[in-house]
């Protein structure tokens, strides 16, 4: 996935759901798999202003704010949100699971 492109999910800083997140850190470990941290754009901008931010974060934010591939990814985020809502409340047609 493009680290500067849309990436729906939860922000690692404010823990809010976001349709568009940016990669803000790559987590390296001594052994085992590493990881990555993604933040919503407002939190990513705030983090970029700190001395802890990696040098490449400004470029990631520029690309994220330009909206690379936004329509396709946002459509996918909306699809995921609808599926999650249906899983909680049932299908949109009646608000309850099908069957009798």
Description:
- With 100 residues, the protein is an alpha+beta fold.
- It contains three helices and four strands; from the N terminus they run E-E-E-E-H-H-H.
- The strands form two sheets. Strands 1-2 form a two-stranded antiparallel ribbon. A two-stranded antiparallel ribbon has the order 3-4.
- A hairpin with a 7-residue loop joins strand 3 (21-27) and strand 4 (35-40).
- The longest helix has 20 residues, at 70-89.
- The radius of gyration is 17 Å and the shape is globular.
- The N and C termini lie far apart (42 Å).
Short description:
By secondary structure, this protein is an alpha+beta fold.
Descriptive key words:
100 residues, alpha+beta, two-stranded antiparallel ribbon, 17% strand, globular
Fold topology:
Layout: E1 9-10, E2 17-18, E3 21-27, E4 35-40, H1 41-48, H2 57-66, H3 70-89
Antiparallel strand pairs: 1-2, 3-4
Helix pairs in contact: 1-2
């Amino acid at each position: 996935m493009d680290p500067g492109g849309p990436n729906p999910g939860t922000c690692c800083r404010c823990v809010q759901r976001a349709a568009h997140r940016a990669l803000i850190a790559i987590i390296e470990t001594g052994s085992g798999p590493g990881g990555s941290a993604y933040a919503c754009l407002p939190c990513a901008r705030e983090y970029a202003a700190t001395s802890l931010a990696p040098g490449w974060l400004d470029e990631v934010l520029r690309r994220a704010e330009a909206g690379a591939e936004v329509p396709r990814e946002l459509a996918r985020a909306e699809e995921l949100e609808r599926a999650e809502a249906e899983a909680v409340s049932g299908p949109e047609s009646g608000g309850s699971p099908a069957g009798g």
